[in-house]
Every structure is written in structure tokens, then in C-alpha cells.
Design goal:
By secondary structure, the protein is an alpha/beta fold. It is about 50% helix and about 15% strand. The two termini are about 30 Å apart.
């Protein structure tokens, strides 16, 4: 098919689908008006660029350790951003000296008080299970969010912090960063996601087992070599700048394409190749009729500037 025929075909398809011309697309001013930024106590939520949201663990005086409130707020935050059409990409970082020191052990005292209310083991188990499931939901929230999540780790990323970053889509870190599956040193098996995700991420069963069984730290260089992170930066400032640049570039792409890509990657991770192929075929029989595909294809065919995509 020559260039002229290709162009005419897409023009006809776009007319049949009642697509508006790309030139009519404009970014809504609402994209620069962040919503509910002050609702969280343990997180800081900002909008550094249109469609780019920045979630920051914000308990620096406690080294961003996870207490019950933070777990709940992480779940709430990512569920909210999942539905927010003004959000297309999410940056995740930690305020203060390090990314996260892991579990806030003072929260264990509260758990002890709840357990003391019951004598029967079945009732105690119910308390434990409900808590574990709630914390699992928090750690899984970035993964379940339709928007791509980029974690930016500096210095220590320990315990629950490591659980959390295994649930994101892209991981950057600084040269002084290290990661640690700390739970084994607390006399427990990690139970909120790292044992399930880390082996799939680094693709080295022996190394994953070593890290989870020993609780040893893995530094930035080894993390890059193992595939846990994709880039290492000299300092937090350069990492944050690069992360924002990446997020902005993703925010300018079709949200239909980006969100469907994330959905397909995650589905294929947990299913076979054939099931993954059927999954994307089922979705794309619909999504290829989207105005995003038509407008992007038209722009490429005519060598025009990339289109500005509607909210999703």
C-alpha cells in the first residue's frame, strides 16, 4: 500500500468513526488543578507537570516507616489516581533521608492490644488475616492502578519499602541506594508481596532466594545488574529530574495505548503466552477503533506533530 492510499484509508476510517480532528484537542486547564492534595497525613501528593502526579512517602521524622495509616492511605491514594482522568503517570519517592525504613514497629504494639481482646486462636487469627490482607492491598495498589508508576529510590529501601517498589512498573535509584527484604530478621516470612514479585522481576531464582532467606542488602550496582532497577543516578536531584522527564514523555502518549500496554504486560506475566495473545486480541479488537490510534497513525502518516490526546 503506497503512502497516498494509506492516508486515504485512514481518512475514511476516521470519518466513519466520527473522529474530531486532532487540532481541536486541547489540554484541559483542570489538568493543572490538582485535586484532594491535602487529604493525606503520611503522603504528599503534588502535580509537577500536566497529567503527572507525584506521590511522596512523607514521614521523614520516622524515616518513612510504614504504620497502619500509611498502608491505608497508599491504598486510598492509588485507587483515587486510578480513576482520576487528569492523572496519566505517577512518580513515587520518599521524603527526607531515605526512601523507607520499612515497618514502623510501634504499630505492632497496637496489634498486640487487638489480639489481647481475644483468647481463642481462631479469633486471633481473624485479626491477623484482616491486617495482612489490608497491607497486601496497599502494596498491590500501584500494580492495580491503570497508570504507569515510576519509583525513585534514594538511600535505604527496607522491608515494606522493598515490597512496595516491586509493585511498580519502572524503578530508578541513586548510587547510595540499597534494598533489603528485612522480614526474615524480624522472625517472620514476608507476607505482603515481595516473595511473589521479586523472583519474577530479577529472573534469578538463586539470587532472589538468597536475598529473601538471608535479609542481606543489595546495593545499586548489583540491583542494576540483576534487573531490579533500570537506571542508577549519582544523586537524588538528578534521579528526580530524569524521572520527571520520563513521566512527562509518557503523559504525552495515548492514555489508551499506555494503560492497555500495562494491562497486557501484567496479564501476560501471570499467564502463558497463548493466553496473553488472546487477551490482547480481545482488547485490541475494540481499542484499535479508538480515536487515539487513528489520530496517532494519521500524524505518523502525514509526518505531522504528535497529537494531543483526550483524557481517559
Amino acid at each position: 500500500m503506497n503512502h497516498k492510499v494509506f492516508l486515504n484509508s485512514f481518512l475514511k476510517m476516521s470519518q466513519n468513526l466520527y473522529l474530531r480532528p486532532t487540532s481541536f484537542r486541547e489540554l484541559s486547564s483542570a489538568a493543572m488543578q490538582p485535586k484532594n492534595l491535602s487529604k493525606f497525613q503520611t503522603l504528599s501528593l503534588t502535580v509537577p507537570k500536566p497529567f503527572v502526579y507525584h506521590v511522596e512517602l512523607n514521614r521523614p521524622e520516622k524515616l518513612n516507616s510504614f504504620n497502619h495509616e500509611m498502608f491505608n492511605e497508599i491504598t486510598d491514594c492509588f485507587k483515587t489516581l486510578h480513576k482520576d482522568e487528569d492523572c496519566r503517570v505517577i512518580l513515587l519517592s520518599g521524603a527526607g533521608r531515605l526512601f523507607s525504613a520499612g515497618l514502623d514497629l510501634t504499630s505492632v504494639a497496637t496489634l498486640g492490644e487487638k489480639l489481647a481482646e481475644h483468647e481463642d486462636v481462631a479469633r486471633k487469627c481473624k485479626v491477623f488475616r484482616e491486617l495482612i490482607i489490608a497491607y497486601q492491598d496497599a502494596i498491590s495498589a500501584p500494580e492495580k492502578c491503570a497508570k504507569p508508576v515510576i519509583s525513585l529510590v534514594h538511600n535505604g529501601c527496607i522491608g515494606a519499602g522493598t515490597d512496595l517498589i516491586t509493585s511498580v512498573d519502572i524503578r530508578y535509584c541513586t548510587e547510595d541506594a540499597y534494598f533489603q527484604v528485612k522480614e526474615v530478621e524480624l522472625g517472620m516470612a514476608a507476607d505482603i508481596g515481595v516473595l511473589q514479585r521479586l523472583p519474577r522481576i530479577i529472573g534469578n531464582t538463586s539470587l532472589a532466594n538468597e536475598l529473601c532467606l538471608t535479609g542481606r542488602k543489595i546495593g545499586a550496582k548489583e540491583s542494576l545488574e540483576a534487573g531490579l532497577v533500570s537506571k542508577v543516578f549519582k544523586d537524588k536531584e538528578s534521579m528526580m529530574a530524569s524521572g520527571l522527564e520520563l513521566a512527562e514523555s509518557l503523559s504525552l502518549k495515548s492514555p489508551v495505548a499506555v494503560q492497555m500496554t500495562k494491562r497486557s504486560i501484567l496479564y501476560s506475566r501471570d499467564h502463558g503466552v497463548e493466553a496473553g495473545l488472546q487477551h490482547i486480541a480481545d482488547w485490541n479488537q475494540v481499542m484499535l477503533q479508538s480515536e487515539d490510534f487513528m489520530n496517532a497513525a494519521m500524524a505518523l502518516a502525514t509526518k505531522s506533530p504528535p497529537p494531543t490526546f483526550s483524557k481517559l
